Amino acid sequence: MTLAALPLRRATATAVAVALVASCATTSLPPIPEAGPGFEPARDERRLWDEARDQERRLLGRVALWDDPLLDDYLLDVTLGLVDPRIARETPFALRVRVVDEPTANAFAFPHGPLYVHSGLLARLESEDQLAMVLAHELAHVEHRHLLRLQRRARNRQIALLSAAIGLSILLGREQAEALDRGHYGRAATIGVLADVVIGLGLGLVFLAAINGYGRDLEAEADAVAFDKLEDAGYDVADGARIYDILLEDAPDPGSKFEQYFLSSHPALEDRIASARAYLASHPRRAAAAHPPRDPTRFARRIRPLLRHYVGRLVDAGEIDRAEAAVERLLDVDPDDPEALRAFAAVRVARSRTAPPERRAALLAEAIDALESATAARPDDPDLAWELGLAAFRAGRRQLACDALGRYLALAPGGENAARARDYLAELRRDGACAGPGAD
After folding, report:
1. Is 251 strand, coil or helix?
2. Positive or negative, the Cα torsion across 141, 142, 143, 149?
3. What burial letters (b/e) apply to 334-355, b meaning 16+ CB within 10 Å?
4. Cα 421 to Cα 393: distance, rounded to the nearest angstrom
5. Strand (E) or helix (H) holding 141
6. What is the layout of strands, in order, in the sheet containing 114-118?
7. Model confidence over 324-342: pLDDT tens digits?
8. What is the spatial distance between Cα 327 and Cα 340, in angstroms, rounded to a whole number?
9. What is the pLDDT of residues 39-57, one digit of tens each?
10. Are 409 and 422 in contact (CB under 8 A)?
């Protein structure tokens, strides 16, 4: 199917899905915690939960999840600390948290309890306070039954929702085409997958929760509930709310609507920042002694494996500024981490490709220094030897390239890069460059 045909297919699928969630029952609903552990869903709410379970199953068949059991445990632990105390011992919904391996900054919740956070959003967070803000906001949607309330409004909003679906489909198609034109192939592929999964499958509930949003009033209510949750749990509300400043600062290229779309149907980021400031002004900070101390390194330790992976995806997508910011965070945690040094080198090499000659030499020198440090810590890692050999070759350091490529072949003679390593070594030998181990 051509790119031009995708928006119509996606919009049609979404129109069908949105029609399934229309209802005319009352939208005035008490939050789940008011009923306590004995909460019983309304009849149409049970149908909504059943539909949500089905759509979640279909979604999981198409998206990639980040597989890190310790991170999953950590996210659930933080979330459990934010559950309304009236239902904390026995939540009447299936609470769990999963990470979708997508570079976009997004999070969403299903009405029956599961929360999903994109790896791209987690990678932007700086602290557990900010993580708690994201999770508390999504948990508020569940506890306050926002999707059911939105569903009961939907009959009068079908045209508006269909317009939003068509607008998103056209927008994603245009963004994908522009990304391809600019050579951002990784970004174009991400846009295509994202649109096909959510809209192409007709996942109306996911569309509402993850893309269209719940509407300004319910999103604002979720923020207000989240602020209270953070304060009750002893988090720093000011730091938690800084996630909105980070997202505002980290917007894509001027004129792009791709990542903004996933926030634009929520209250504008400026409005959310203003709401947070108003809350802080009207709620003097409570004494920190009222809460047990938290391990300040826990967030950084749990997020580090994902952050390393995220850097690679950003480099592949051409998002070098974001990749560099992520690398700086990795090095702040452990400046001697071989994987962080490798990521630093990858960013420097990526920058060198478009840099003027004098700057290119300096960038490659920094990459080589980082890879030599990483190799000293892990001398038996063939991938580090390969990357060092390539960086040295690019920098014109031919003897170092010979040594590193020769070491790669000694460590991985049947490795996936072995044929290329032999080709590069043969070229260096023809030029008389190899005088040591790489000469053999």
Report:
1. coil
2. positive
3. eeebbbbbbbbbbbbbbbbeee
4. 11
5. helix 128-143
6. 96-100, 114-118, 107-109
7. 999 999 999 899 999 999 9
8. 7
9. 999 999 999 999 889 888 9
10. yes
